[in-house]
Amino acid sequence: YYTNAEMNLAINEANRLFVLLTLCLEKSVSFSLSSGTTWYTDLRGTLTDFILPLRVTASNVRVSPSNFSELDCLSDTWEAATGTPTQYAQRGFNALAIYPHPSGSGTSLSITYAFEPAALSSDSDIPEIPLEHHPDLVDCAVYLCRLKEGGQEFQKGLAFYGRFLDACTKY
């Protein structure tokens, strides 16, 4: 009833949704900062699978998450402040602001971030999420496929989606 392409799309959507809801996939990288630069606006160009930072350090010292309202309250000119980074703020998936920004070169951040799983393209591909949650992807995929049917079939699919969401909250 469903094409192979529809099933693959549904499994991939379920896989991405599971990772987004649980942040279960982590990767650590060293991210070089440029002298005098506050904004890094092409994160997805550099870290192509980036979802959001989980832990950030500079010289083994924690760099705390913040938001733009808090940074604006610190100073009207926070974007011009220089020093050792103590805070960061994220805008969407693609922009990161560092406060204060380094005045010289050679500063890097150690960023542990949640990453987007690789797309599954063949039946032999194995999802990167923990093995015990692979059946949960099937539950979500059944729900996603049944969306197009509407009515009673959609209603029956809600139970599958509920099981999927329960699994996400238990991770």
Shape from CA axes?
Answer: elongated
Q: What is the percentage of strand-forming residues?
A: 15-25%
Q: Average pLDDT, to the nearest integer?
A: 93
Largest sheet: 4 strands, antiparallel
**Strand neighbour order, sheet with most strands:** 1-8-3-4
Q: What is the count of DSSP helices, taking H or I runs of 4+ residues?
A: 5
Runs in which pLDDT lies below 50 for 5 or more consecutive residues are none
Helix content: 25-40%
Euclidean distance between termini CA atoms: 32 Å
What is the CA-based Rg, rounded?
Answer: 20 Å
The topology string of helices and strands comes to: HEEHEEEHEEEHH
- The tally of beta strands, per DSSP, is 8
Task: Tell me what you see in this structure.
It is elongated and about 60 Å long. Helix 1 packs across helix 4 (134-146) and helix 4 (134-146) packs antiparallel against helix 5 (151-170). It is α+β, with helices and mostly antiparallel strands and 171 residues long. The strands form two sheets. A four-stranded antiparallel sheet has the order 1-8-3-4, with no helix packed on it. A four-stranded mixed sheet has the order 2-7-6-5, with no helix packed on it. 23% of the residues are buried. The chain has helices at residues 4-22, 43-46, 68-74, 134-146, 151-170, and strands at residues 26-32, 39-40, 50-58, 61-62, 64-65, 87-91, 95-99, 108-115. 37% of the residues lie in helices and 23% in strands.
